[in-house]
Design brief:
The structure holds two protein chains of two kinds. By secondary structure, chain A is mostly beta strands. Chain A contains four helices and eleven strands; from the N terminus they run αβββββββββαββαα. Chain A is globular, with a radius of gyration of 16 Å. Chain B has six domains: 3-217, Up-down Bundle (Four Helix Bundle (Hemerythrin (Met), subunit A)), CATH 1.20.120.160; 222-275, Helix Hairpins (Orthogonal Bundle), CATH 1.10.287; 279-460, Heat Shock Protein 90 (2-Layer Sandwich), CATH 3.30.565.10; 466-530 and 542-614, CheA-289, Domain 4 (OB fold (Dihydrolipoamide Acetyltransferase, E2P)), CATH 2.40.50; 629-766, Beta Barrel (OB fold (Dihydrolipoamide Acetyltransferase, E2P)); 772-903, Rossmann fold. In chain B, 36% of the residues lie in helices and 25% in strands. In chain B, the strands form eight sheets. Chain B has a six-stranded mixed sheet with strand order 12-16-17-15-14-13. The chains are: A mainly beta, B alpha+beta.
């Protein structure tokens, strides 16, 4: 599945499908193949000592899902407690993760000729999580590097 | 891998293990026909299957072994130890071949000519010296069984001969059935568990014909069971949700069917749980062989006894304890038991015993491994601990024997003088301990010199479902496994169990011990101001007066976790946390509660580790000190440091203080011109340290409470500063009343308070104030008294008078000192003591030995003429009332001067 992502730039097929999501009003794209499901997280339990990148744990149909919050790492303000949110479910090594987002956009098939590498002046924190940018008609779509999003270093916090 | 090959590997590994076991039995009971038949059959099946699958090398070895067994069976060759060893060796070879086969799917190159030749020689009776008639292999041409497919039928397994390279379907089937539980150690391709093993299942020989027990069980892949378990957990959760919904409706048509569903769900859950349970004996199967080999290698006679093998526990736990168990049994047989010669010399039976015992005890399985050997060498452990830098000489001095024994669980610890091939390499026991602690168990050791030692493993029944306490802290819920919870204490302001603080560190007084407390919210850094609606009120003191204390025990550490609320106990299904969260040591997993929410499971081991490690060492040291206050003058004494009246710090021996109280100052009333406090249903007088000191104007007044028997006195202080362990030496004798002297504590000159003075103020008959002190030389006094109160009262008094004082709490301890060759100038002893009393002690001492000539003074609270007469009759020089302390000093002085004059 992730092969698709890796070969994004030199993929010979002409277009890739993305699910678009909003985090703090910025449009992000995640390759549709990586997404297990999209759900509305209910009753997220915070995990003490886990740091700001872990949103908590929640019960999704009897499975314990670890919610990941990228806002802190992107230098964005923390989500308001009352604010509704959605999550994109991703499976990795048999474990379930949910990347917290504000809302889901749509599924877009994007031609490769609208793709560009990260602009040189992009914030370094963003550059780490962005695989590149698609030029949409009225917006820019940042491709989220899901592999990296799932790597959270919490040892600093635990210590 | 080929399915057939996979099955073969699995079944053969199990058969081999079984043969291992049975052979050892056979060696002990050579005439046991049933066992022999069984072995023969198993080996025969292995051989047959190998031929069938085209594995010539394996087949050849199995064939040769079978030959020997055949000779045993026909009575041509006697069963003897050498032959058994040889067959065991060939089994090992088969195992090695199987391992290779599993990895590479082909047999290794080469051949086993020598082994086969040896086996053949044995079969010819050359090894055993038995009848050397060469009989051809009985070959019986049996047609294959009638049913061609491998359906598990209801037929008795028939015993018959098959040509090498041929195997009947029945045999194949038997091979698939003729073993019990899984055996991960033999590394099967896939772990398989057997559903409800009624007993260790073996292929039945023909004499006990009847429905084969094997037919009542089938093999199921472990994954299937795990999935089943998960699904049942889901079902339980959904059921709980439904119940919740229906409960809120008055008259629901769903009520009755839901109740049925609920009942069935519960039964289903239990049934699935049961499939995970296996007899602990499965983990013991290898042990007879281990012991047998050990016995041969070390030339010891060892009898292994296994009790409670049918005690069931979760298969996951079983797997995890298998290796530690084997290791410990080896240790017992190797280190624990003496050599046969030593045993005989010690008057013990030549055959050493190792006993393995398993039983249930309150949600735990207890496994004991005991031997009747020499016991653990305490002195050697001490020396080794010293050499390894695990403890200092003075640490060891303070430790109880039990504490010293625990060093065997430290890393790199082995006291075996020589390293055998079996054990003694200095790794092991620490690994054992770690492995057992990983699964929430604990391991302990007891030992009696010359009588043997016992290791006790305590492990939870299952890891998957544990009973947990659901608690709340800062509005978040957590689960704490009940396994480590000793008790629950509700703490309320003003009640007996009130959280007290020493320099901000919370402690709880629990049955005369101080329990270190840790606040859950602090530990988990739960303080989140935006989270708390009334942040201002909670910011001041994070520990509200009304809270619950969960007293937990991990190993030797006992501590309390303070939480805001306790809900109830729930059976929770432990799920591991995501890899991302494993870095947090305070959680052992997470779980989904009945209401569908996820909560974190707090790991008591992690909590214990996070509480300052120094704390535990200190606690143990204090404990050891209390236990063994053998009166070494270098011993430190715990001193309570406080301020009262004047800026200089004051101190009092902590052991003299019964309680620390903080009471509302309004509660102090005045009656008969005295300050009194209603305290525990009685009136307690509260006194100030000095006239310049006054009670607090408002708020809470700290009070030190001293009690003896039914009397209590409160001493009002301004502030409790600290508790320190200091070597107490009175530097300056005081002229002030109520002060014993001045000592340097925490590098500050500190007045050591004479508690007696204040007690006297309240109860003039408690004892009388000493007005003058006499200076004497460097004399040593031994003071024997079982009452800690008096020990701490009298010894500072004598010390203040310039003597060196050694205190012990019993006559027995005094005798120990005598045996150590200690010498004193005078002995002061209490009369009423448990065990040997003062009279007995004096009698014993005066009869003979180095202490016969030492002057002895009796100190007692019973002072009738007959009491005095009794004391004098056993050789006490004087009998002094405990209340009359100046008389005691006078007599001590006079006696010492006298003895000096005499000298």
């Amino acid at each position: 599945m992730s092969d698709e992502l890796m070969e994004l730039e030199n993929d010979h097929s002409e277009s890739t499908e993305f699910v678009t999501v909003y985090i703090a009003d910025q449009l992000f794209g995640i390759p549709v193949e990586l997404i297990h499901d999209v759900f509305q997280p209910e009753a997220i339990t915070e995990v003490p000592l886990s740091g700001p990148d872990i949103g908590g744990v929640l019960n999704l149909r009897g499975k314990i899902v670890t919610a990941i919050d990228v806002r802190h790492r992107l230098g964005l303000a923390a989500r308001e407690r009352t604010q509704k949110c959605m999550a994109v479910g991703i499976e990795k090594n048999g474990e379930s993760y949910g990347v917290l987002i504000d809302r889901v956009g749509e599924v877009l098939r994007l031609p490769h000729d609208t793709f560009e590498r990260n602009p040189a002046n992009l914030d370094s924190r963003w550059r780490d999580f962005s695989k590149g940018v698609y030029r949409l008609d009225n917006e820019l779509l940042v491709i989220l590097d899901v592999e990296l999003v799932l790597v959270v270093d919490i040892e600093v916090v635990a210590a | 891998m080929d399915d057939l090959l996979k099955e073969f590997l699995m079944e053969t590994s199990e058969s081999i293990d079984l043969v291992d076991e049975e052979l050892v039995v056979l060696e002990q009971e050579p005439d046991n026909k049933k066992v022999l038949d069984n072995i023969f059959r198993l080996v025969h099946t292995i051989k047959g299957t190998c031929g069938f699958l085209g594995l010539p090398r394996l087949e050849a070895v199995a064939h040769a072994s079978e030959n020997v067994l055949g000779k045993f069976r026909d009575g041509v060759v006697d069963v003897n130890s050498d032959c058994v060893t040889l067959i065991l060796k060939s089994l090992d070879q088969i195992k090695a071949l199987l391992t290779y086969l599993e990895e590479n799917e082909v047999e290794p190159q080469g051949e086993d000519g020598e082994l086969i030749a040896q086996l053949n020689r044995a079969a010819d009776g050359e090894l055993s010296g038995g009848a050397a008639t060469v009989a051809p292999i009985v070959v019986e041409d049996t047609p294959p069984a009638s049913d061609d497919d491998l359906v598990i039928g209801d037929k008795v397994l028939v015993q018959k001969e098959v040509r090498p390279g041929e195997v009947s379907l029945e045999d194949l089937e038997a091979a698939f059935m003729a073993a019990d539980g899984p055996d991960e150690e033999t590394s099967e391709p896939e772990p398989v568990v057997e559903i409800e093993p009624v007993a260790p299942i073996v292929a039945v020989a023909k004499e006990n014909a009847g429905p084969s027990i094997a037919n009542q069980s089938i093999r199921v892949n472990v994954d299937v069971l795990e999935d089943l378990m998960t699904m049942v957990s889901e079902l339980v959760l959904t059921r709980n949700q439904l119940m919740q919904m229906v409960r809120n409706q008055e008259d629901s048509e769903f009520k009755v069917p839901l109740q049925r569903l609920s009942g069935v769900t519960t039964d289903l859950q239990e049934a699935v749980m049961k499939t995970r349970m296996q007899p602990v004996g499965n983990a013991w199967k290898k042990l007879p062989r281990v012991i047998r080999d050990l016995g041969h290698e070390l030339d010891k006679k060892i009898h292994l006894e296994m009790l409670g093998a049918d005690t069931e526990l979760d298969r996951q736990v079983l797997e995890l304890i298998k290796d530690p168990l084997t290791h410990m049994v080896r240790n017992s047989a190797d280190h624990g038991l003496e050599t046969t010669a030593e045993r005989i010399a010690a008057g013990k039976p030549a055959e050493g015993r190792v006993v393995l015992r398993a039983y249930h005890e309150g949600g735990h399985i207890i496994i004991e491994i005991s031997d009747d050997g020499r016991g653990l060498p305490v002195d050697k452990i001490k020396a080794k601990a010293l050499a390894n830098g695990l403890a200092t000489e003075s640490d060891l001095e303070k430790m109880s024997e039990n504490q010293i024994l625990k060093f065997v669980f430290a890393a790199g610890f082995s006291t075996a003088e020589k390293v055998t091939s079996v054990s003694g390499r200095g790794v092991g026991m620490d690994v054992v301990r770690t492995n057992i602690e990983v699964i929430g168990g604990s391991v302990d050791v007891r030992s009696t010199h010359g009588k043997g030692s016992t290791f006790t493993i305590k492990i939870p029944l299952t890891l998957a479902i544990v009973s947990a306490l659901i608690v709340e802290s800062s509005k978040q819920r957590f689960a704490i496994p009940q396994l480590s919870v000793v008790e629950l204490v509700r703490s309320r302001a003003g009640s007996d169990s009130q959280i007290e603080r020493i320099n901000g560190t919370p402690v709880l007084r629990l049955r005369d011990r101080l329990l270190p407390l840790v606040q859950m919210s602090t530990l988990l850094k739960l303080e989140n101001p935006s989270d708390l609606e009334n942040a201002s009120s909670e910011s001041g003191d994070t520990m509200s007066d009304d809270s619950f204390i969960i007293v937990s025990q991990v190993g030797a550490n006992t501590f309390g976790i303070v939480v805001d609320g306790v809900f109830d106990t729930e059976e929770i299904v432990v799920k591991p946390t995501a890899t991302l969260l494993r870095g947090i040591p305070l959680f052992s997993g997470n779980t989904i509660l009945g209401d569908g929410s996820v909560i974190m499971i707090v790991d008591p081991n992690g909590v214990a580790a996070s509480i300052a490690t120094a704390g535990s060492a200190e606690a143990e040291a204090i404990e050891a000190e209390e236990k063994k206050r053998s009166g070494d003058n270098d011993d430190t004494i715990s001193m309570l440091v406080f301020n009262a009246g004047s800026p200089e710090p004051k101190a009092v021996p902590l052991s003299l203080v019964t309680r620390l109280e903080e009471i509302e100052v309004e509660r102090i009333e005045i009656a008969d011109g005295q300050h009194v406090l209603q305290y525990r249903g009685n009136l307690m007088q509260v006194v100030c340290l000095s006239p310049t000191q006054s009670f607090k104007a408002e708020g809470r007044q700290p009070i030190l409470v001293f009690t003896d028997a039914d009397r209590a006195v409160g001493l009002a202080v301004d502030e409790i500063v600290d508790i320190v362990d200091e070597k107490i030496s009175i530097e300056i004798n005081s002229q002030t009343q109520g002060v014993v002297g001045t000592s340097v504590i925490r590098e500050l000159a500190t007045d050591v308070i004479d508690v007696g003075h204040y007690l006297l103020q309240v109860y003039p008959d408690w004892f009388e104030r000493l007005e003058e002190r006499t200076e004497v030389g460097d004399k040593r006094i031994l003071y024997v008294d079982d009452s800690r109160f008096f020990r701490h009262l009298i010894s500072p008094l004598l010390m203040a008078a310039g003597y060196q004082v050694v205190t012990v709490s019993s006559a027995e301890e005094a005798l120990e000192l005598k045996d150590k060759g200690e010498i004193f100038d005078i002995i002061v002893s209490d009369i009423e003591m448990p065990g040997v009393n003062g009279l007995g002690l004096a009698k014993q001492l005066n009869e003979e030995g180095a202490w016969a000539g030492i002057p002895k003074i009796a100190l007692s609270s019973n002072n009738s003429p007959s009491d005095i007469q009794k004391s004098l009759s056993v050789g006490f020089l004087e009998h002094v009332s405990k209340a009359n302390r100046d008389r005691l000093l006078e007599i001590v002085n006079a006696t010492l001067i006298e003895s000096e004059d005499a000298a």
